[in-house]
Protein 1
Amino acid sequence: PETADSAQVMITDLVFSYPGQAAAAVNQLSLAVPAGLHVAILGHTGSGKSTLLQLLTRAWDPQQGTISLNDKPISHWSEAALRSMISVVPQRIHLFSATLRDNLTLAAPGADDHQLVGMLHKTGLEKLLEGDGLNAWLGEGGRQLSGGEQRRIGIARALLHNGPLMLLDEPTEGLDAGTEQQILLLLRQHGAGKTLISVTHRLQGLDLMDRIYVMDQGQFIEQGTHQQL
Ligand code: ATP
Ligand code: MG
């Protein structure tokens, strides 16, 4: 199958409305992200940020425009190739009624216990190993996790999957300032050489990003570096 170790993103004149909705959630939007660039997307609630990330994963078909990865429209990619290319931290993390191990490896079946434990330490989740270790049962009938712990499970999953394109939807939402800083540095470290598109409401960490876009009503209304904005 097609594999790639870098990802260049090209979005051209993208238009998307949800079924039955008159207003476009993404409206004539274009974006070019060279391989290896780290980009932040800011914007008010409802401005279309999550929709844009979902369109990149082909969760929806746009009415107009194209999205290409490495110069190939994603509509031409196989499901498997697209999945291996993209690592996602969605806005809402789903935990399955399964072990901690299975909850981490669902997108990274090749990861061994040593890697999983290492990633739990890096994301500050080592406490979850107390008791049953990687066999701890999560979800229904098992251990419930705090919002911040769920966020970091999402980040751990994405980093274990390790695709060349990382899409992060509010990766540090609900984390205290110290933990947020730890996660931002981790993302920067693991994201080196990868293309990273991060949606955020937070100002912390923006100085680590190469470029910042501000979204409003499905369009970018401002763009620049941290210093320019
Ligand atoms: P937030 O910062 O609150 O996460 P966002 O910028 O991610 O907001 P989106 O979730 O992309 O915003 O939503 C963009 C627009 O599309 C909003 O008007 C929202 O109400 C609408 N929308 C989102 N999901 C759906 C859906 N599944 N069906 C219909 N409309 C939707
Ligand atoms: Mg959102």
Note: The chain has a mean pLDDT of 95.
Protein 2
Amino acid sequence: MSLDHAKIAAVVKEAYDKFSQAAGGENASYIPYLASVPSSLVGVTVVTKDGTVFECGDSNYEFALESISKVFSLALALEDVGAEEVHNKIGADPTGLPFNSVMALELHGGKPLSPLVNAGAMATVSLIKASNPEDRWSRILGMQSQLAGRQIALSEEINRSEQTTNFHNRAIAWLLYSAGTMYSDPMAACDVYTRQCSTLISSKDLAVMGATLAAGGINPLNKQRILKAENVPHILAAMTMEGLYDSSGDWAYTVGLPGKSGVGGGILAVAPGQLAIAGFSPPLDPIGNSVRGQLMVAFIAKELGLNLYAVN
Ligand code: GLN
């Protein structure tokens, strides 16, 4: 089934008009930079697998990628070491606990369970092939850039804000190391993980990155194959299980698409074989998901009939 472009354009605009003023939520404040981003910003973008872009609002405003970066480093780790090793060393289950939970690690003998929580993301970074941390970082930035189809850059300001406040993540990295589930120097992995969260992307970039997944690993703008097709279902499964942290089940139940959020206010949903929807607005619900982003993305998915579990 191919969706009608006029319908997509109308639905994207309707989502923006309906929810861009929605109340509720607060900017993340545990990373000082994020507290300073204007809460009124709202962007939404759909990119189809053939590269058509539909956007509304602040869709070119560049915000911190944050946790959504975990998806793209997972992609790189899968390319590097393969699905089996990622599954064995990291896991593919929801933790049922907050994204930076220490208890989740304690309960499972140090196995992080998901590449999309902080512990699993740092362990995933440590699996990526590299001769040193700078090389690992440039490969991750290269992957983000290839998926977006343009050069993605680190924000020095965001990175400084995160690196000087990431004590909890450093503790998690050492816990992984002590459990034997960290595969490089733990502080170097934490440092690189923190950088990957501190890159700047727009909702348009995010939708292109997601559309690359929707197209089975081919960037829809430049038609380059970025990922092996066989790795994409593993990425989407991880997103389904843990992409919106401990509301991933609610998201699957109500929206029915693999998704991923970040505390910068970004949120991405992928309709395999069709398109990706990206939303951005800084105020978050208590779990860490963008309030307006979830409303807009869920609305678009519903109006376009994209629920994967629906029998049409
Ligand atoms: N950099 C953030 C952290 O590690 C990302 C978390 C998130 O977006 N959920 O805490």
Note: The pocket of glutamine is lined by residues 66-67, 99-100, 118, 162, 169, 197, 262-263, 288 (CB under 6 Å).
